[in-house]
Amino acid sequence: MTRTRPYLLCGLRCSGFWLATALMPLAGAHAQGVDALLNSGDSLLRLQKPQRAMELFDKAIAMGPNANALLGRSKAWYMMDRMDRFLLDVENALRLDSTLAEANYQRGLYAMRANEYSRAEVYATKAIINAPDSSLRAKAHILRGEASAELKRYGAAIDDLNHGIQHGATDTEAMRTLGRLLDLAGRHQESLAVLEQLCMLEPNDVGHWSNRGFELIILERYDEAMTMIEKALSIDKDEPVGLSNRAYVHMKQGREAEAWRDVERSLRAYPSNPYALRTRAMLRLRKGERTKACEDLTLAKALGDVAEVDYLLKENCSMEQAPRRR
């Protein structure tokens, strides 16, 4: 019986070893090639050149299934407002890697855009859990906060928005939302702090100065409030909220003629402003015009939840005297 010589058997095994070893540099080169394409594509996206970036992501995808390549191409589709293709790519990326933080974040953005707030909240949570860096985590907190705000989970929204902003996400729309929610929660000093930041970031936005003045009015810091209101009106002299705020401060400081001028100007531009109606009612009560004051208070009550209106109605307008709502 002829025996197989050991060196031949060894030769067969060794040939497999050498083949695998020879392929390792090729695999490494392949990975490096994909990474280079992805990095270049991301750079082009930052330069707002999605079509050129698309070519590179297409090449990376052609080299084999890759969640990051699909994610990159999905962002290019998003920038080009091709939401159908964006959704296809980002969902395929998540099928390949459900923990991919930025894919979850991008999918959450789409859900937010589609008014699917519960889904946006879920995707944002996955992004927060898996985010590789604080920057993406902060943006995901902002996204979840905005979704929670739409779902009227205000406490959770405030926590997320605060976290995102404190950790570097300078999203002025999110800051607007946070300021409004803090005001609704009666946390006026915190709302004021957010508005101070917004005034620095967007100094030409009249709304920031008006809202800052409003928070100072609630805190009864009338002189400071007037400074902010005058800044708002220097940007837009006919801005109705600023005029309404100034009328209230004038009234509180005993300047009734100035208050009348401002509140009437405000109501001509914005007849359904419940705060201006409240102020005019208070001025009318001082003049003894009780019936007209009650009309203003009743309308203000119907339009919104305004401080002092319930008390003024109770004290000055009986059910017989208060006009019926039509």
Radius of gyration: 31 Å
In whole angstroms, the N-to-C terminal distance is 112 Å
- Give me the count of strands: 0
Q: Superfamily at the CATH H level of the domain at 203-268? A: Tetratricopeptide repeat domain
Q: What is the element string, with H for helices and E for strands? A: HHHHHHHHHHHHHHHHH
- Oligomeric state of the chains present here: single chain
pLDDT average, as an integer?
A: 88
- Overall structural class, as computed from helix and strand content, comes to mainly alpha
What is the CATH architecture annotation of the domain at 203-268? Alpha Horseshoe
How large is the count of helical segments? 17
Q: What percentage of the residues does DSSP assign to strands (E)?
A: under 5%
Q: Which CATH C-level class of the domain at 203-268 is it?
A: Mainly Alpha
* Helix residue percentage: over 70%
Poorly predicted runs of 5 or more residues: 1-29, 322-326
Shape: elongated
* Main β-sheet description: none
Per the CATH scheme, the topology name of the domain at 203-268 is Serine Threonine Protein Phosphatase 5, Tetratricopeptide repeat
Structural descriptors:
mainly alpha, disordered C terminus, 0% strand, Serine Threonine Protein Phosphatase 5, Tetratricopeptide repeat, 326 residues, 78% helix
Would you give an account of this structure?
The chain has 326 residues and is mostly helical. Among the domains are: 203-268, Tetratricopeptide repeat domain (Serine Threonine Protein Phosphatase 5, Tetratricopeptide repeat, Alpha Horseshoe), CATH 1.25.40; 272-326, no CATH class. It has 17 helices and no strands. The protein has helices at 6-46, 50-62, 67-79, 83-96, 101-113, 117-130, 134-150, 154-166, 172-184, 188-201, 206-218, 222-235, 240-252, 256-269, 274-287, 290-303, 309-316. Helix 7 packs antiparallel against helix 8 and helix 16 (290-303) runs antiparallel to helix 17. The radius of gyration is 31 Å and the shape is elongated. Residues 1-29 and 322-326 have low confidence and may be disordered.
